[in-house]
Design goal:
CATH topology of the largest domain in chain B: Recoverin, domain 1
Number of strands of chain B: 4
Protein name (chain A): Outer dynein arm docking complex subunit 2
Strand content of chain B: under 5%
Order of helices and strands of chain B: HHEHHEHHEHHEHH
Structural class of chain B: mainly alpha
Radius of gyration of chain A: 39 Å
CATH class of the largest domain in chain A: Mainly Alpha
Helix content of chain A: 55-70%
Oligomer: heterodimer
Distance between the termini of chain A: 90 Å
Number of helices of chain A: 53
Largest sheet of chain A: 5 strands, antiparallel
Structural class of chain A: alpha+beta
CATH architecture of the largest domain in chain A: Alpha Horseshoe
GO biological process, one term (chain A): determination of heart left/right asymmetry
CATH class of the largest domain in chain B: Mainly Alpha
Number of domains of chain A: 6
Radius of gyration of chain B: 20 Å
GO molecular function, one term (chain B): calcium ion binding
Protein name (chain B): Calaxin
InterPro entries (chain A): ARM-like, ARM-type_fold, Armadillo, GSKIP_dom_sf
Number of strands of chain A: 10
Number of helices of chain B: 10
Shape of chain A: flat
Shape of chain B: elongated
Largest interface: A-B, 27 and 23 residues
Amino acid sequence: MGISLTRAAQWTMVSSSTAKLASTPMNESLLKEILHFVERFSSQHPQEAEHVFEEPLQWNTTLVASDFKTDYDISDSDVQSHERDSEGHPLLQLSPPTVYVRSFSQLSKLLHLADDKKLVEVRACLEGKFESNLHPKQSNHQHSSITHRLNVFVLLVTLYNHPIIQVRLNPKAVKNEVEILQVFCGGGDKGLLKSLRYTSDFEFSNGYRAPLWRQVQGDICYLVIEPCDTETLYITCSTAGSFLNGGEENGYERTSDTYEDLVTLLKSRSPHFAEKINQVEVLIVCLIKKAEVALVYFRKTSAGALPGELFSESSTESEEEEEQPYRHPETNTDLPSEYWQIQKLVRYLKDGDQIVTVDTLCAMMDFNLMQESCQMAIQDTGGLKVLLNLLDTDEHKCKIGSLKILRTISHNSQIRRVIVDMRGVQSIVKILDSPVKELKALAAETIANVAKFRRARRNVRLYGGINKLVSLLDCLPNLASLTPSQEEDIEVACCGALALWSCSRSTKNKKAIRKAGGIPLLGRLLKSPLQKMLIPVVGTLQECASEESYRTDIQTLGMIKDLVRNLSSDNDELQMHCASAIFKCAEDKQTRDLVRKYKGLQPLVSLLHKAGNKQLLAAATGAIWKCSISQENVTKFQEYKALEILVNLLTDQPEEVLVNVVGALGEFAQIPANKAAIREFGGIKPLVKLLTSPNQALLVNVTKAVGACATNKDNMVIIDQLDGIRLVWSLLKNPSADVQSSAAWALCACIENAEDAGETARSLIGGFQLIVKLLSSTNNEVLASICAAICKIAKDEENLAILTDFGVVPSLAKLTNTTHDRLRHHLADAIAQCCMWGSNRASFGEAGAVAPLVRNLKSKEGSVQRSTAMALYQLSRNPNNCITMHEKEVVQPLIHMMGSDDEELQEAAAGCVRSIRLLYMANRNAELFTFRN
Amino acid sequence: MSKISAMNKRATQALAENISKQVEHFSKKEVECLIREFNVLMAEQNNSGRAVQGLDRGKFISTLHSIFGLTDDRMTGRVFRTFDKDNDSVVSMKEWIEGLSVFLRGTLDEKIKYCFSVYDLNGDNAISREEMLHMLKGRLIRQPNEEDPDEGIKDLVEIILKKMDYDHDGKLSFEDFEKAVKDEHLLLEAFGTCLPDFRVIFFHDSIHSTSARLETCSEY
């Protein structure tokens, strides 16, 4: 909503010249919003709805007299409302085609009458102009400030839809308010006020007029106002609201309640003002001013929760800190002495001038700010607000001091949240532009701490922080000798990288960093010899490597070499981030080759010895897993005896390590020699044991590894002894499709290689039912794997009989319409195998499996052609199927296949053609026989 | 006329060469500019016929105000005393240039020395409680419920003393001050603004270097 209105405001400026609304979806939704608002207005704000406009809203309506009901005087085509203003003018008047409306309640009634033409009316109303022909004498210059009616509506919608009670006033809003009121000053009794002026003509660059040391308190400016009917008022406008002050003698003291804005304050003090302001046109002007505040507030709240954005952030945030409700300050009983000392210092911060402020900040730094009691004391005593206010002042020493405290206390998650709530991120982001390097570095460091949760990260992005942070990275990291200024640049770049690291946990920020040109800069910093620089840089890269585009850039910009180099660093954290970056990037074959080329495989294996550091171990094993997808890498790994170490890591490790270790073993076991090696190192038993893990990612890898090992007969014996087939089989019940298919593939290998596997399979109660049931899965990968498994199981005739009983034939037949090649291949195999029992051939024909199979022959995939030809050969032994095949013109493609180099395919195709031919001959003989008789 | 100005120019150059050897951080060209600027200030000063060898207190303070934005009366007086090393109540050309060298280009050590001598009101090589109180007085708004208007400041002085007085003798020696500032640079101007804002320095610096460069150009 906030964003839509902001856009609307831009759009109205364009369209105000033409006074026509383009018919865009944006405008449509805006119109609906306004319509909705106006319809509810009279019930939600009855008092305001009765205000009479001084000038009517006027437009050409589509309504005619007959549309109006009671409450209206109808004479011919003209209509007047019963409701009249104090001078007797009707609040609604229709003289076709023009309608004049003079209050919100009438407007909402009219829209009610318009029924399905509501939107047309709203649009016409907005396009209409402020006409003053009804009361020419009352029209005056005040309206020049309202250029287009739409603006007013948009602002009204904003205003009333969203409470602005908790708004912090800002200098701009106050300035607007003062400027508007100044327009109505003077002119004797007709004006709102006699005079209104600031006490100081000097305006700071931040819009404040109060002296610096009062700005810290939130004071914006001081006003002297002469109302028409009471004595002169001395007023302080502060971020908390407006209040009377002690006048010339005691200008800073508050002597009245605080009002949310100037108008409210004046209303309470000057009856004359209150009376005058209750005219709608003035009200609208004031509303515009209020809405300004509201819009500012709005941007703030809309940054908090836009449904579209809420769920689109990156998945790495799952371990994200939760937003918890605020801890309320405890009662004053057992507060530590630091609390009172800090409270005192906060008071000095508020009351002191620049020198005292800096001294106090230094004194505050002496407290142990990492301690929660101190952090909470600063927050509870209002110190946080003062610290944030200091960031908006012009005093760079105060800013430095404040940031030094903020960067430390922002380690506390609650403080972080309050900083974001108080709009601190904007102020900190703004400081990134400072010419003082120390300030930039401190601001970036503070962002690094604050941006630990999503809302903060989004704020950093929305206020342009990502671009600024990326530009901090621009320095020369690896010069032999540095000037002091270059050293400072490096320090700044370090802090910038730290901040980006925190920010990069949001997907959109990753994109923003890329867009801001951050990747080449990170690549350059990667050449730095400094660990404190490398850790955040590699941390950011590995965080971002979850994005495809980053992985490509990391590879093409030559960063793999540097990542590999730092694998041999002496810092565990750096090694971990490098390994984890390689883990993410090595999905790509070229990257895997580069890791080998730069001799990164050996350091990865040596990281396995650091078994104490589980995070490092997880990253290293992950990198090994992904690298071992390339067989050349596996060969290298064997030189470094990686397999034995990996097998030893199968026990007593956390799951994130196990997933990677088992994944790596699965890849290693693709080489036959390694299958035996795994057994020799005692790896089979722990692997089979892991089949009972509840972790799905782990199960996918374990079943794959077990499946790979099972193709070795000796391994299979052990697996069988350990009841592995039953364990794998029961994983078909797992809810995850990945686990199901991976388990089914493993099952294929097990059944193929086990001694009397048929017997084992039959002993599993409910196993066959499960298999047949999975044929109704919607996941093609699962279906393909199950078909493959059926093919293996059905090799045993008894099993096939049981499967047939459970209805495997119609279930398979139903799948024949698929276009998924992998599934087509295994499905055809399964059908061919299932033809071996009883009347299954005929059943397939009856279930309509033959025609689609003929079509599948035309697939370009060789494996599909081959399996399908074999299935057709089996099916062709049933005469009815032959007829169907012949009808579907199977002969021509089969004859093509007979010319294939693949003997089995040749044979199947030829066999099939033969069956058809035999049937034809038999038919002809039969016909001849009948003919003869 | 042109002869005189040529002689003047030569004299200035000789003087500049001499001074630039004794004062750190400025090149000969820059010193020349500063000399010229000093002469302008001298000319502006109402010397009422007397032959004065430097800027008097009033002119000096108004210059601090107009060029360097230093407005704190308590401090500007002390800055004058610190610039005026020979205590003759005027800031001579050399003193002026020496002072500016710290102002504009001073290293941290030089600035620490300078600030310490500004803050050491009675020149006894220590900043006492009373001196601090004097310098910080009135910098806190008086709370209406407090009886002693300076209670807050007194408390603050104790806090600062506790923080900076490493040898626990109840006053800040130069060593105390130096150590504290090196620890936390923000404490350099702990008792009042006596150095120009960095923006002024940027500005000033760029003017000097540009005008120096222009000089060089015009000579060829």
